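Obj: model holo form, ligand = fe (ii) ion.
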Amino acid sequence: MSKTFNRRDFLKRSAVVAAGALPLSTIEIAFGKNNPQNFTFAYISDSHITHIKGNKFVRNWDRGLIRAVAETNLMDPKPDFVFYGGDIAQLGKPEEIDHGLEILSGLSPKVHYVMGEHDYYVDLGEYWRKQLGPDHYSFDHKGVHFVVLNSILTHEKWMHKKWPSGMDRMKQMARLDNPNGQPFMVGDAQRKWLKNDLAKVSKDTPVVVFSHSPIQKIYKGWNFWTDDAEQVQALLKPFNKVTVIYGHVHQIQYNQIGNISFHSAMATAWPWPYPKTYVQKASYMPKLTVEMNRADPFFERDATGWQFINMDTGNVDMHYVLPENQNRVVAFDKKAGHPVDRDFQDSAKRIPPQKHF
Ligand SMILES: [Fe+2]
Ligand SMILES: [Fe+2]
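Output (holo structure tokens):
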């Protein structure tokens, strides 16, 4: 990037852009003040474009994505690229993927894509791959190694033998708390590919992994889960600075496992509530601070949100901007050795649900 900027400038500009509730993320990777290597990228995820019939689509989900595209094009500094975190479609229909890509084609920067389960299970990703290419790949950008994984695969047997049609299979995977569903996984072949890919990367290069499901085990009933997470984590272990950024969960999550920081991005479509199980576990998940403030089904952007991410130390600081709510920062805390919700980690500071009327 020819233009240099520092974090203060970036925050100032972001504050202007963030005047509304913007369903996208920008990510700043900075190598030091005014370093020409500094760059940003934007992150948009989980649009769930839903086909009704003919040329009719569910309007709210369209609007979330349209707004994200518009805001991304207005960003200053301009992001070097955009990352799309998966689930373009709701039921993987070609109409949905095409309509989503048509909206995304309005973006001026290049877009990198990850596969979501809603893009995959109707035809095992055939149409998505035809339009977008491989579902796992890596690239280097200004000193950072980026890896994209397809983390929503599952057992061959379940995929191929059990269901009368692809749409039946898709609908099983689209449900929560479904005993007929299956856990997601990266799988043997992709892990082998990842091992070879990482063999070329020096251990002090910052590594950023994009996946759709979290490469950690959070809540199996909702598939906030990747079954071979530990095996993928083991491949990432030798690197000094590793961050996994994922979509799928439609809510704020963060965690630290060994050397790996985990952060979720929010959806442009709808938020999921926090599963009850969270409160039974000691974890670094948010303390249900805002309960996603999503109790209001009549507020279409309720608890969807926008975030930008600083990586100037090689660790991620995630800045969430939530509509009708207080902003939050989840940042790596050196002393604690894991990400901390700066203002709300302490449960005494929880924000009660808020009203929009
Ligand atoms: Fe999703
Ligand atoms: Fe998903």
